[in-house]
Design brief:
With 524 residues, this protein is mainly alpha-helical. Helix 3 crosses helix 9, helix 10 packs across helix 13 and helix 12 packs across helix 13. The longest helix is centred in the N-terminal third of the chain and has 131 residues.
Protein backbone atom coordinates (compact mmCIF):
# COMPACT_ATOMS: atom_id res chain seq x y z
CA UNK A 1 0.00 0.00 0.00
CA UNK A 2 2.89 2.27 0.69
CA UNK A 3 4.27 1.57 -2.79
CA UNK A 4 0.90 2.45 -4.32
CA UNK A 5 0.78 5.68 -2.36
CA UNK A 6 4.28 6.55 -3.45
CA UNK A 7 3.39 5.96 -7.08
CA UNK A 8 0.26 8.04 -6.71
CA UNK A 9 2.17 10.84 -5.15
CA UNK A 10 4.67 10.76 -7.96
CA UNK A 11 1.95 10.69 -10.64
CA UNK A 12 -0.27 13.32 -8.96
CA UNK A 13 0.19 16.98 -10.06
CA UNK A 14 1.54 19.32 -7.55
CA UNK A 15 -1.14 20.46 -5.02
CA UNK A 16 -1.31 24.18 -4.42
CA UNK A 17 0.19 24.38 -0.97
CA UNK A 18 -0.25 28.07 -0.80
CA UNK A 19 -3.89 27.46 0.18
CA UNK A 20 -4.39 28.26 3.78
CA UNK A 21 -7.08 26.92 6.02
CA UNK A 22 -9.05 23.75 6.65
CA UNK A 23 -11.02 23.89 3.40
CA UNK A 24 -8.00 23.90 1.29
CA UNK A 25 -6.46 20.92 3.19
CA UNK A 26 -9.71 18.94 2.92
CA UNK A 27 -10.01 19.67 -0.76
CA UNK A 28 -6.46 18.43 -1.34
CA UNK A 29 -7.08 15.24 0.63
CA UNK A 30 -10.29 14.41 -1.31
CA UNK A 31 -8.61 14.96 -4.62
CA UNK A 32 -5.75 12.69 -3.56
CA UNK A 33 -8.16 10.00 -2.47
CA UNK A 34 -9.99 10.14 -5.80
CA UNK A 35 -6.76 9.93 -7.65
CA UNK A 36 -5.62 6.97 -5.59
CA UNK A 37 -8.96 5.23 -6.08
CA UNK A 38 -8.75 5.68 -9.83
CA UNK A 39 -5.21 4.37 -9.95
CA UNK A 40 -6.15 1.31 -7.83
CA UNK A 41 -9.07 0.47 -10.09
CA UNK A 42 -6.86 0.75 -13.11
CA UNK A 43 -4.22 -1.48 -11.56
CA UNK A 44 -6.83 -4.01 -10.43
CA UNK A 45 -8.31 -4.13 -13.89
CA UNK A 46 -4.85 -4.71 -15.36
CA UNK A 47 -4.17 -7.52 -12.85
CA UNK A 48 -7.52 -9.14 -13.62
CA UNK A 49 -6.81 -8.99 -17.33
CA UNK A 50 -3.37 -10.46 -16.82
CA UNK A 51 -4.80 -13.21 -14.60
CA UNK A 52 -7.48 -13.97 -17.19
CA UNK A 53 -4.82 -14.14 -19.92
CA UNK A 54 -2.65 -16.51 -17.90
CA UNK A 55 -5.67 -18.62 -17.02
CA UNK A 56 -6.63 -18.82 -20.68
CA UNK A 57 -3.09 -19.80 -21.56
CA UNK A 58 -2.99 -22.49 -18.85
CA UNK A 59 -6.36 -23.71 -20.04
CA UNK A 60 -5.12 -24.02 -23.60
CA UNK A 61 -2.00 -25.89 -22.42
CA UNK A 62 -4.06 -28.32 -20.35
CA UNK A 63 -6.40 -28.89 -23.27
CA UNK A 64 -3.40 -29.60 -25.52
CA UNK A 65 -1.90 -31.99 -22.97
CA UNK A 66 -5.23 -33.75 -22.58
CA UNK A 67 -5.50 -34.11 -26.35
CA UNK A 68 -1.96 -35.50 -26.57
CA UNK A 69 -2.65 -37.99 -23.74
CA UNK A 70 -5.88 -39.00 -25.42
CA UNK A 71 -4.10 -39.54 -28.74
CA UNK A 72 -1.36 -41.57 -27.03
CA UNK A 73 -3.90 -43.77 -25.23
CA UNK A 74 -5.81 -44.12 -28.46
CA UNK A 75 -2.69 -45.28 -30.30
CA UNK A 76 -1.84 -47.78 -27.57
CA UNK A 77 -5.37 -49.11 -27.55
CA UNK A 78 -5.35 -49.43 -31.32
CA UNK A 79 -1.97 -51.24 -31.15
CA UNK A 80 -3.37 -53.70 -28.56
CA UNK A 81 -6.45 -54.22 -30.68
CA UNK A 82 -4.29 -54.80 -33.77
CA UNK A 83 -2.13 -57.33 -31.88
CA UNK A 84 -5.21 -59.17 -30.68
CA UNK A 85 -6.64 -59.13 -34.16
CA UNK A 86 -3.40 -60.51 -35.62
CA UNK A 87 -3.32 -63.28 -32.97
CA UNK A 88 -6.95 -64.06 -33.66
CA UNK A 89 -6.21 -64.22 -37.38
CA UNK A 90 -3.22 -66.50 -36.70
CA UNK A 91 -5.32 -68.76 -34.47
CA UNK A 92 -8.03 -68.79 -37.11
CA UNK A 93 -5.50 -69.81 -39.75
CA UNK A 94 -4.15 -72.57 -37.48
CA UNK A 95 -7.66 -73.83 -36.83
CA UNK A 96 -8.36 -73.81 -40.56
CA UNK A 97 -5.13 -75.74 -41.22
CA UNK A 98 -6.02 -78.28 -38.53
CA UNK A 99 -9.50 -78.65 -39.95
CA UNK A 100 -8.00 -79.15 -43.40
CA UNK A 101 -5.49 -81.76 -42.16
CA UNK A 102 -8.23 -83.45 -40.15
CA UNK A 103 -10.44 -83.62 -43.19
CA UNK A 104 -7.53 -85.08 -45.20
CA UNK A 105 -6.85 -87.66 -42.49
CA UNK A 106 -10.51 -88.54 -42.38
CA UNK A 107 -10.51 -89.00 -46.16
CA UNK A 108 -7.39 -91.18 -45.90
CA UNK A 109 -9.02 -93.18 -43.12
CA UNK A 110 -12.13 -93.72 -45.18
CA UNK A 111 -10.04 -94.76 -48.17
CA UNK A 112 -7.94 -97.17 -46.09
CA UNK A 113 -11.08 -98.52 -44.45
CA UNK A 114 -12.56 -99.27 -47.82
CA UNK A 115 -9.28 -100.93 -48.86
CA UNK A 116 -9.25 -102.99 -45.66
CA UNK A 117 -12.84 -104.02 -46.26
CA UNK A 118 -11.99 -105.16 -49.77
CA UNK A 119 -8.91 -107.03 -48.48
CA UNK A 120 -11.01 -108.64 -45.75
CA UNK A 121 -13.50 -109.84 -48.32
CA UNK A 122 -10.70 -111.32 -50.41
CA UNK A 123 -9.23 -112.98 -47.30
CA UNK A 124 -12.58 -114.45 -46.40
CA UNK A 125 -12.84 -115.89 -49.89
CA UNK A 126 -9.30 -117.30 -49.69
CA UNK A 127 -9.93 -118.61 -46.17
CA UNK A 128 -13.01 -120.50 -47.32
CA UNK A 129 -10.94 -121.98 -50.16
CA UNK A 130 -8.21 -122.95 -47.68
CA UNK A 131 -10.77 -124.59 -45.40
CA UNK A 132 -12.04 -126.66 -48.31
CA UNK A 133 -8.52 -127.71 -49.25
CA UNK A 134 -7.78 -128.52 -45.60
CA UNK A 135 -10.80 -130.82 -45.42
CA UNK A 136 -9.67 -132.53 -48.62
CA UNK A 137 -6.14 -132.97 -47.21
CA UNK A 138 -7.49 -134.40 -43.96
CA UNK A 139 -9.58 -136.92 -45.91
CA UNK A 140 -6.59 -137.91 -48.04
CA UNK A 141 -4.37 -138.08 -44.91
CA UNK A 142 -6.85 -140.37 -43.17
CA UNK A 143 -6.98 -142.59 -46.25
CA UNK A 144 -3.16 -142.77 -46.41
CA UNK A 145 -2.93 -143.52 -42.66
CA UNK A 146 -5.46 -146.30 -43.03
CA UNK A 147 -3.50 -147.72 -45.95
CA UNK A 148 -0.19 -147.51 -43.99
CA UNK A 149 -1.77 -149.20 -40.96
CA UNK A 150 -3.09 -151.95 -43.18
CA UNK A 151 0.30 -152.43 -44.85
CA UNK A 152 2.51 -152.20 -41.71
CA UNK A 153 0.18 -153.88 -39.28
CA UNK A 154 0.79 -151.02 -36.73
CA UNK A 155 -1.58 -148.39 -35.46
CA UNK A 156 -0.81 -144.70 -35.81
CA UNK A 157 -0.11 -144.33 -32.08
CA UNK A 158 2.37 -147.24 -32.07
CA UNK A 159 4.18 -145.89 -35.11
CA UNK A 160 4.30 -142.41 -33.55
CA UNK A 161 5.76 -143.74 -30.28
CA UNK A 162 8.45 -145.72 -32.14
CA UNK A 163 9.33 -142.69 -34.23
CA UNK A 164 9.54 -140.48 -31.14
CA UNK A 165 11.86 -142.92 -29.39
CA UNK A 166 14.20 -143.08 -32.36
CA UNK A 167 14.16 -139.29 -32.67
CA UNK A 168 14.90 -138.92 -28.94
CA UNK A 169 17.93 -141.21 -29.13
CA UNK A 170 19.22 -139.43 -32.21
CA UNK A 171 18.67 -136.01 -30.60
CA UNK A 172 20.45 -137.10 -27.41
CA UNK A 173 23.47 -138.31 -29.37
CA UNK A 174 23.65 -135.11 -31.41
CA UNK A 175 23.13 -132.98 -28.29
CA UNK A 176 25.92 -134.75 -26.40
CA UNK A 177 28.35 -134.35 -29.27
CA UNK A 178 27.32 -130.71 -29.68
CA UNK A 179 27.70 -130.08 -25.93
CA UNK A 180 31.17 -131.65 -25.95
CA UNK A 181 32.18 -129.55 -28.93
CA UNK A 182 30.85 -126.38 -27.29
CA UNK A 183 32.56 -127.18 -23.99
CA UNK A 184 35.88 -127.96 -25.71
CA UNK A 185 35.63 -124.82 -27.81
CA UNK A 186 34.71 -122.75 -24.73
CA UNK A 187 37.67 -124.21 -22.82
CA UNK A 188 40.04 -123.44 -25.67
CA UNK A 189 38.62 -119.98 -26.20
CA UNK A 190 38.47 -119.16 -22.48
CA UNK A 191 42.03 -120.35 -21.93
CA UNK A 192 43.25 -118.41 -24.92
CA UNK A 193 41.44 -115.23 -23.90
CA UNK A 194 42.64 -115.52 -20.30
CA UNK A 195 46.22 -116.07 -21.47
CA UNK A 196 45.97 -113.07 -23.80
CA UNK A 197 44.70 -110.84 -20.98
CA UNK A 198 47.40 -112.03 -18.57
CA UNK A 199 50.16 -111.70 -21.20
CA UNK A 200 49.03 -108.20 -22.17
CA UNK A 201 48.90 -107.17 -18.52
CA UNK A 202 52.39 -108.53 -17.82
CA UNK A 203 53.85 -107.03 -20.99
CA UNK A 204 52.56 -103.57 -20.10
CA UNK A 205 54.12 -103.60 -16.61
CA UNK A 206 57.87 -103.36 -16.21
CA UNK A 207 59.10 -104.00 -12.67
CA UNK A 208 62.53 -104.29 -11.19
CA UNK A 209 63.85 -107.33 -9.38
CA UNK A 210 64.15 -106.22 -5.75
CA UNK A 211 65.98 -108.34 -3.20
CA UNK A 212 65.98 -107.28 0.46
CA UNK A 213 68.08 -108.83 3.21
CA UNK A 214 68.02 -108.72 6.99
CA UNK A 215 71.35 -106.88 7.17
CA UNK A 216 72.69 -103.56 5.89
CA UNK A 217 76.37 -102.95 5.27
CA UNK A 218 77.62 -99.48 6.30
CA UNK A 219 80.85 -98.55 4.54
CA UNK A 220 83.45 -96.38 6.30
CA UNK A 221 86.56 -94.67 4.99
CA UNK A 222 89.03 -96.38 7.32
CA UNK A 223 89.07 -98.94 10.10
CA UNK A 224 90.15 -96.24 12.56
CA UNK A 225 86.53 -95.11 12.78
CA UNK A 226 85.51 -98.49 14.24
CA UNK A 227 87.13 -97.66 17.56
CA UNK A 228 85.36 -94.29 17.75
CA UNK A 229 82.03 -95.94 16.88
CA UNK A 230 82.55 -98.58 19.60
CA UNK A 231 83.59 -95.94 22.15
CA UNK A 232 85.19 -96.35 25.52
CA UNK A 233 84.25 -99.75 26.91
CA UNK A 234 81.67 -100.02 24.13
CA UNK A 235 79.39 -97.25 25.43
CA UNK A 236 78.78 -95.69 21.97
CA UNK A 237 77.78 -98.95 20.30
CA UNK A 238 75.52 -99.87 23.22
CA UNK A 239 73.83 -96.46 23.06
CA UNK A 240 73.33 -96.84 19.29
CA UNK A 241 71.85 -100.32 19.66
CA UNK A 242 69.56 -99.18 22.49
CA UNK A 243 68.34 -96.13 20.60
CA UNK A 244 67.72 -97.88 17.24
CA UNK A 245 66.91 -101.45 18.23
CA UNK A 246 69.46 -102.69 15.68
CA UNK A 247 72.38 -105.02 16.32
CA UNK A 248 75.65 -103.33 15.28
CA UNK A 249 78.32 -105.87 14.28
CA UNK A 250 81.88 -104.57 14.16
CA UNK A 251 84.22 -107.37 13.03
CA UNK A 252 87.31 -107.82 10.90
CA UNK A 253 85.51 -106.95 7.69
CA UNK A 254 87.61 -104.15 6.17
CA UNK A 255 85.98 -100.72 5.96
CA UNK A 256 82.51 -102.05 6.77
CA UNK A 257 80.11 -102.23 9.70
CA UNK A 258 77.09 -104.56 9.59
CA UNK A 259 73.67 -103.46 10.85
CA UNK A 260 71.42 -106.45 11.54
CA UNK A 261 67.65 -106.30 12.17
CA UNK A 262 64.50 -107.78 10.69
CA UNK A 263 62.76 -104.38 10.70
CA UNK A 264 64.07 -102.47 7.65
CA UNK A 265 62.83 -99.14 9.06
CA UNK A 266 65.06 -99.56 12.09
CA UNK A 267 68.01 -100.52 9.88
CA UNK A 268 67.50 -97.42 7.77
CA UNK A 269 67.30 -95.21 10.88
CA UNK A 270 70.51 -96.76 12.19
CA UNK A 271 72.28 -96.38 8.83
CA UNK A 272 71.36 -92.71 8.40
CA UNK A 273 72.16 -91.94 12.06
CA UNK A 274 75.55 -93.62 11.79
CA UNK A 275 76.27 -91.75 8.57
CA UNK A 276 75.45 -88.41 10.20
CA UNK A 277 77.52 -89.23 13.31
CA UNK A 278 80.54 -90.24 11.23
CA UNK A 279 80.24 -87.13 9.05
CA UNK A 280 79.88 -84.86 12.08
CA UNK A 281 82.70 -86.52 14.05
CA UNK A 282 80.98 -86.07 17.43
CA UNK A 283 80.20 -89.57 18.64
CA UNK A 284 79.04 -89.95 22.24
CA UNK A 285 75.85 -91.36 23.86
CA UNK A 286 73.99 -88.05 24.23
CA UNK A 287 74.76 -87.08 20.64
CA UNK A 288 73.75 -90.57 19.43
CA UNK A 289 70.32 -90.31 21.08
CA UNK A 290 69.78 -86.83 19.64
CA UNK A 291 70.76 -87.87 16.10
CA UNK A 292 68.70 -91.07 16.22
CA UNK A 293 65.58 -89.17 17.36
CA UNK A 294 66.06 -86.58 14.63
CA UNK A 295 66.64 -89.27 12.01
CA UNK A 296 63.54 -91.17 13.13
CA UNK A 297 61.42 -88.06 12.58
CA UNK A 298 62.98 -87.56 9.15
CA UNK A 299 62.23 -91.16 8.22
CA UNK A 300 58.62 -90.75 9.39
CA UNK A 301 58.26 -87.64 7.23
CA UNK A 302 59.83 -89.47 4.31
CA UNK A 303 57.41 -92.38 4.80
CA UNK A 304 54.43 -90.00 4.56
CA UNK A 305 55.95 -88.31 1.51
CA UNK A 306 56.56 -91.68 -0.19
CA UNK A 307 52.94 -92.68 0.49
CA UNK A 308 51.60 -89.42 -0.99
CA UNK A 309 53.90 -89.64 -4.02
CA UNK A 310 52.88 -93.25 -4.65
CA UNK A 311 49.18 -92.36 -4.50
CA UNK A 312 49.75 -89.44 -6.90
CA UNK A 313 51.77 -91.58 -9.32
CA UNK A 314 49.01 -94.20 -9.44
CA UNK A 315 46.22 -91.62 -9.68
CA UNK A 316 44.60 -92.66 -6.38
CA UNK A 317 42.74 -89.84 -4.60
CA UNK A 318 41.01 -89.49 -1.24
CA UNK A 319 43.23 -91.97 0.59
CA UNK A 320 43.05 -91.75 4.38
CA UNK A 321 46.23 -90.22 5.93
CA UNK A 322 46.84 -93.37 8.00
CA UNK A 323 46.58 -95.58 4.91
CA UNK A 324 48.94 -93.18 3.11
CA UNK A 325 51.46 -93.59 5.93
CA UNK A 326 51.16 -97.38 5.74
CA UNK A 327 51.76 -97.27 1.99
CA UNK A 328 54.94 -95.30 2.67
CA UNK A 329 56.05 -97.90 5.25
CA UNK A 330 55.90 -100.53 2.49
CA UNK A 331 59.11 -99.05 1.10
CA UNK A 332 61.00 -100.49 4.08
CA UNK A 333 59.21 -103.87 4.15
CA UNK A 334 60.02 -106.97 2.11
CA UNK A 335 58.15 -110.23 1.53
CA UNK A 336 60.16 -113.28 0.42
CA UNK A 337 62.90 -110.85 -0.56
CA UNK A 338 60.52 -108.77 -2.72
CA UNK A 339 60.15 -105.10 -1.81
CA UNK A 340 56.55 -104.67 -0.66
CA UNK A 341 56.03 -101.19 -2.13
CA UNK A 342 57.33 -102.24 -5.55
CA UNK A 343 55.18 -105.38 -5.36
CA UNK A 344 52.06 -103.35 -4.45
CA UNK A 345 52.67 -100.82 -7.22
CA UNK A 346 53.14 -103.67 -9.68
CA UNK A 347 49.94 -105.38 -8.53
CA UNK A 348 48.05 -102.06 -8.77
CA UNK A 349 49.15 -101.50 -12.37
CA UNK A 350 48.39 -105.11 -13.31
CA UNK A 351 44.92 -104.84 -11.76
CA UNK A 352 44.17 -101.62 -13.64
CA UNK A 353 45.26 -103.13 -16.97
CA UNK A 354 43.33 -106.35 -16.42
CA UNK A 355 40.21 -104.49 -15.28
CA UNK A 356 40.39 -102.33 -18.41
CA UNK A 357 40.67 -105.43 -20.59
CA UNK A 358 37.60 -106.89 -18.86
CA UNK A 359 35.58 -103.65 -18.96
CA UNK A 360 35.62 -103.03 -15.19
CA UNK A 361 36.48 -99.97 -13.08
CA UNK A 362 40.25 -99.51 -13.53
CA UNK A 363 40.62 -96.86 -10.79
CA UNK A 364 38.94 -99.06 -8.20
CA UNK A 365 41.06 -102.04 -9.27
CA UNK A 366 44.27 -99.98 -8.99
CA UNK A 367 43.24 -98.85 -5.49
CA UNK A 368 42.56 -102.42 -4.34
CA UNK A 369 45.86 -103.62 -5.83
CA UNK A 370 47.86 -100.98 -3.97
CA UNK A 371 46.16 -101.70 -0.62
CA UNK A 372 45.96 -105.51 -0.86
CA UNK A 373 49.01 -106.08 1.42
CA UNK A 374 48.35 -103.14 3.78
CA UNK A 375 47.96 -105.63 6.63
CA UNK A 376 51.69 -106.45 6.47
CA UNK A 377 52.84 -103.02 7.73
CA UNK A 378 50.98 -102.33 10.99
CA UNK A 379 52.56 -100.56 13.93
CA UNK A 380 51.93 -103.65 16.08
CA UNK A 381 52.05 -107.27 14.97
CA UNK A 382 48.49 -108.74 14.84
CA UNK A 383 47.73 -112.42 15.44
CA UNK A 384 45.33 -112.70 12.49
CA UNK A 385 46.32 -113.16 8.80
CA UNK A 386 47.52 -110.03 7.07
CA UNK A 387 44.70 -110.17 4.48
CA UNK A 388 41.99 -110.16 7.16
CA UNK A 389 43.81 -107.46 9.15
CA UNK A 390 44.19 -105.34 6.00
CA UNK A 391 40.47 -105.78 5.28
CA UNK A 392 39.63 -104.50 8.77
CA UNK A 393 41.95 -101.52 8.32
CA UNK A 394 40.37 -100.63 4.97
CA UNK A 395 36.90 -100.95 6.46
CA UNK A 396 37.96 -98.78 9.42
CA UNK A 397 39.19 -96.02 7.11
CA UNK A 398 36.00 -95.97 5.00
CA UNK A 399 37.19 -97.73 1.84
CA UNK A 400 34.54 -99.03 -0.57
CA UNK A 401 33.04 -102.48 -0.06
CA UNK A 402 34.59 -103.81 -3.31
CA UNK A 403 38.09 -102.78 -2.19
CA UNK A 404 37.55 -104.20 1.31
CA UNK A 405 36.43 -107.58 -0.06
CA UNK A 406 39.30 -107.72 -2.56
CA UNK A 407 41.84 -107.10 0.22
CA UNK A 408 40.35 -109.70 2.55
CA UNK A 409 39.85 -112.44 -0.05
CA UNK A 410 43.12 -112.33 -2.01
CA UNK A 411 44.39 -115.34 0.03
CA UNK A 412 40.92 -117.00 0.28
CA UNK A 413 40.46 -116.20 3.99
CA UNK A 414 37.22 -114.41 3.07
CA UNK A 415 34.67 -115.34 0.40
CA UNK A 416 34.89 -113.33 -2.82
CA UNK A 417 31.77 -111.27 -3.49
CA UNK A 418 32.87 -108.98 -6.35
CA UNK A 419 34.62 -109.34 -9.70
CA UNK A 420 37.43 -107.17 -8.36
CA UNK A 421 38.55 -109.82 -5.82
CA UNK A 422 39.76 -112.52 -8.29
CA UNK A 423 41.57 -109.86 -10.34
CA UNK A 424 43.56 -108.76 -7.26
CA UNK A 425 44.29 -112.39 -6.36
CA UNK A 426 45.50 -113.22 -9.88
CA UNK A 427 47.65 -110.09 -10.18
CA UNK A 428 49.18 -110.76 -6.75
CA UNK A 429 50.13 -114.25 -7.93
CA UNK A 430 51.53 -112.88 -11.20
CA UNK A 431 53.70 -110.33 -9.41
CA UNK A 432 54.98 -112.88 -6.88
CA UNK A 433 55.54 -115.73 -9.34
CA UNK A 434 57.43 -113.91 -12.09
CA UNK A 435 61.09 -114.89 -12.43
CA UNK A 436 63.39 -112.99 -10.08
CA UNK A 437 60.57 -111.48 -8.05
CA UNK A 438 61.14 -113.34 -4.83
CA UNK A 439 64.06 -114.95 -3.07
CA UNK A 440 63.54 -118.12 -1.12
CA UNK A 441 65.87 -119.64 1.39
CA UNK A 442 67.51 -122.82 0.08
CA UNK A 443 66.32 -124.89 3.02
CA UNK A 444 62.67 -123.94 2.55
CA UNK A 445 62.98 -124.50 -1.21
CA UNK A 446 64.37 -128.03 -0.74
CA UNK A 447 61.76 -128.73 1.92
CA UNK A 448 58.96 -127.75 -0.45
CA UNK A 449 60.31 -130.06 -3.17
CA UNK A 450 60.52 -132.97 -0.73
CA UNK A 451 56.98 -132.32 0.48
CA UNK A 452 55.73 -132.38 -3.11
CA UNK A 453 57.41 -135.70 -3.83
CA UNK A 454 56.30 -137.26 -0.51
CA UNK A 455 52.70 -136.14 -0.99
CA UNK A 456 52.46 -137.82 -4.39
CA UNK A 457 54.33 -140.92 -3.21
CA UNK A 458 51.69 -141.52 -0.51
CA UNK A 459 49.10 -142.61 -3.10
CA UNK A 460 48.76 -146.33 -3.88
CA UNK A 461 50.30 -147.51 -7.12
CA UNK A 462 52.88 -144.67 -7.24
CA UNK A 463 56.43 -145.97 -7.78
CA UNK A 464 58.56 -142.82 -8.09
CA UNK A 465 58.09 -139.07 -7.99
CA UNK A 466 60.27 -136.26 -9.34
CA UNK A 467 59.85 -132.54 -8.63
CA UNK A 468 61.41 -130.63 -11.54
CA UNK A 469 61.56 -127.07 -12.90
CA UNK A 470 62.07 -125.57 -9.42
CA UNK A 471 58.94 -127.23 -8.12
CA UNK A 472 56.71 -126.02 -10.97
CA UNK A 473 56.15 -129.57 -12.28
CA UNK A 474 55.73 -132.93 -10.51
CA UNK A 475 56.17 -136.11 -12.51
CA UNK A 476 54.60 -139.22 -11.01
CA UNK A 477 55.50 -142.70 -12.29
CA UNK A 478 52.92 -145.40 -11.55
CA UNK A 479 52.85 -149.13 -12.06
CA UNK A 480 50.88 -150.23 -15.10
CA UNK A 481 49.56 -153.36 -13.37
CA UNK A 482 48.14 -151.35 -10.43
CA UNK A 483 46.89 -148.15 -12.12
CA UNK A 484 44.84 -148.08 -15.32
CA UNK A 485 44.70 -145.23 -17.82
CA UNK A 486 41.40 -144.04 -16.36
CA UNK A 487 42.80 -144.22 -12.84
CA UNK A 488 45.83 -142.17 -13.95
CA UNK A 489 43.60 -139.24 -14.88
CA UNK A 490 41.78 -139.31 -11.52
CA UNK A 491 45.14 -139.72 -9.70
CA UNK A 492 46.59 -136.57 -11.30
CA UNK A 493 43.44 -134.68 -10.38
CA UNK A 494 43.51 -135.90 -6.76
CA UNK A 495 47.21 -135.01 -6.33
CA UNK A 496 46.62 -131.54 -7.79
CA UNK A 497 43.70 -130.91 -5.43
CA UNK A 498 45.67 -132.09 -2.41
CA UNK A 499 48.67 -129.88 -3.27
CA UNK A 500 46.36 -126.93 -3.80
CA UNK A 501 44.62 -127.43 -0.44
CA UNK A 502 47.63 -128.26 1.76
CA UNK A 503 50.65 -126.41 0.35
CA UNK A 504 51.69 -122.79 -0.25
CA UNK A 505 53.61 -122.12 -3.46
CA UNK A 506 54.02 -119.35 -6.05
CA UNK A 507 52.37 -119.76 -9.46
CA UNK A 508 51.11 -123.23 -10.34
CA UNK A 509 52.33 -126.84 -10.19
CA UNK A 510 51.84 -129.14 -13.16
CA UNK A 511 51.08 -132.80 -12.26
CA UNK A 512 52.13 -135.37 -14.90
CA UNK A 513 51.26 -139.03 -14.27
CA UNK A 514 53.32 -141.46 -16.40
CA UNK A 515 52.09 -145.00 -16.92
CA UNK A 516 54.03 -147.31 -19.18
CA UNK A 517 54.03 -151.00 -20.01
CA UNK A 518 57.36 -152.64 -20.83
CA UNK A 519 57.57 -155.97 -22.61
CA UNK A 520 61.02 -157.53 -22.29
CA UNK A 521 62.26 -160.73 -23.91
CA UNK A 522 65.69 -162.16 -24.63
CA UNK A 523 66.97 -163.83 -27.75
CA UNK A 524 69.36 -166.69 -26.94
Amino acid sequence: MELIMQSLVLQTPMVPYFLIGGVSLLAGTGIAFLLVNAVVKKKSNNLVKEAEGEAEMIKQQKILQAKEKFLQLKEEHEKIINDKNSKLNQRENEVKQKEFSHSQKQEDFQRKKSEVDSVRENLNVQLSAVERKKEELERSHRMQVDQLEAISGLSAEDAKSQLLESLKEEAKTEAMSLINEIVDEAKMTAGKEAKNIVIKSIQRVAAETAIENAVTVFHIESDELKGRIIGREGRNIRALEAATGVEVIVDDTPEAIILSAFDPVRREVARLSLHQLVSDGRIHPARIEEVVEKTRKQIEEEIIEVGKRTAIDLGIHGLHPELTRMVGRMKYRSSYGQNLLQHSREVANLCAIMATELGLNAKLARRAGLLHDIGKVPDDEPEIPHAVFGMKLAEKYKEKAEVVNAIGSHHDEVEMTTLLAPIVQVCDAISGARPGARREVVESYIKRLKELEAMALSYPGVLKTYAIQAGRELRVIVGSEKVSDKDAESLSYDIARKIQDEMTYPGQVKITVIRETRAISYAK
